[in-house]
Design a protein that fits this description.
Elements lengths: L4 E2 L18 H14 L18 H9 L3 E2 L10 H4 L4 H16 L7 E6 L6 H12 L7 E5 L7 H4 L8 H6 L8 E3 L4 E4 L8 H5 L4 H11 L2 E5 L8 H8 L2 E7 L5 H10 L5 E7 L4 H21 L1
Parallel strand pairs: 2-5, 3-7, 3-8, 4-6, 4-7, 8-9
Antiparallel strand pairs: 1-9, 5-6
Helix pairs in contact: 1-9, 4-5
């Protein structure tokens, strides 16, 4: 079973209670400009449920709740331990990672988390999906999983959603809405990649991505971005400029030291939060956790 170990920097202990979303004057001015740009402007154009006029927190919350709701059908061979194996050590590691991220943003702006890797097949998309599901467990914090890997998208498939319009259709102007969807029972929103374009990098440089991210940032408490690997492509450089923090995924037995060094050199050091080691083997800890978890379940069942 794939297990995740984090190497995040130390931070202060997590404060109790829910964190309240705030809207600065700059954000309000930006939203006013966006409403003028995307609003009906007197031409009778209708607004989608994901494109609200009212920018108050209650109105934004209501608008997100009105996004299309999709039923989740997770494939049997999935690796979404945060959903299908909540008592596993892997799921516990993602819960620990979520706690560390909440600790970190007590001392720095941290809302848009970029998940990337040095090369393909290191498990970045699995990490992104599991982390998003874990963060979404706090209902008061609205969480978005954004599939930014426009060349090899996987987010929709991980939840069994099939082919649905997403980010590509939004950026190209094929759809007027942002194509946000709410995943039933998970408390999670998703913006899939959509249909793979011929030139993803050119699509991302049309000038629509940055305003879109500003809008999404005002709507959500957490945005987990699944981006392409660092080394082969230039797409990640665009996403890294838009993100608040970066997590680099490596894979035990796959990632070479030289590749890791090159990957680290391409990332902005001030935004690098740490590295995750995927598929690490530690049988002793695994056995201990499984015994502890099973005992806890047995005691709960006896009390019931």
């Amino acid at each position: 079973m794939s297990r995740i170990f984090d190497a995040l920097q130390r931070s202060e202990a997590e404060r109790s209670g829910a964190e309240e979303s705030t809207f600065s004057l700059a954000t309000e001015l930006l939203q006013a400009a966006e409403r003028k740009m995307y609003g009906n402007g007197g031409n009778g154009k209708q607004h989608s449920s994901a494109d609200p006029i009212d920018s108050s927190p209650s109105a934004l919350s209501e608008a997100l709740e009105q996004c299309p709701v999709l039923s989740v059908s997770i494939p049997q061979e999935n690796r979404l331990v945060a959903v299908s194996k909540e008592e596993s050590l892997g799921a516990e590691k993602f819960r620990f990672l979520a706690v560390r991220l909440r600790q970190l943003r007590q001392t720095r702006p941290l809302k848009k988390i970029l998940i990337t890797s040095t090369i393909p097949q290191e498990g970045k998309s699995t990490v992104a999906a599991n982390l998003a599901c874990t963060l979404a467990r706090r209902k008061q914090h609205k969480t978005l999983l954004l599939d930014g890997d426009l060349r090899r998208p996987t987010a929709a498939a991980q939840f069994g959603l099939g082919r649905i319009p997403g980010l590509c259709e939004c950026l190209s102007g094929e759809t007027e809405s942002i194509n946000l969807y709410r995943l039933e029972s998970l408390g999670l929103w998703i913006l899939p990649a959509g249909a793979t374009p011929q030139n993803p990098l050119e699509l991302m440089q049309l000038g629509k991505l940055s305003p879109l991210m500003d809008r999404l940032t005002s709507w959500f408490d957490w945005i987990v971005i699944d981006s392409p690997p660092v080394l082969p492509l230039a797409d990640t450089s665009i996403w890294s400029r838009l993100a608040d923090g970066i997590l680099l995924v490596t894979r035990n037995g796959t990632t070479e030291k030289q590749q890791l060094q090159k990957g680290l050199e391409t990332l902005e050091k001030s935004k690098l939060l740490g590295a995750l080691v995927n598929s690490s083997e530690n049988a002793a800890h695994s056995d201990y956790y499984q015994r502890y978890s099973s005992s806890s379940i047995d005691r709960s069942s006896k009390k019931g």
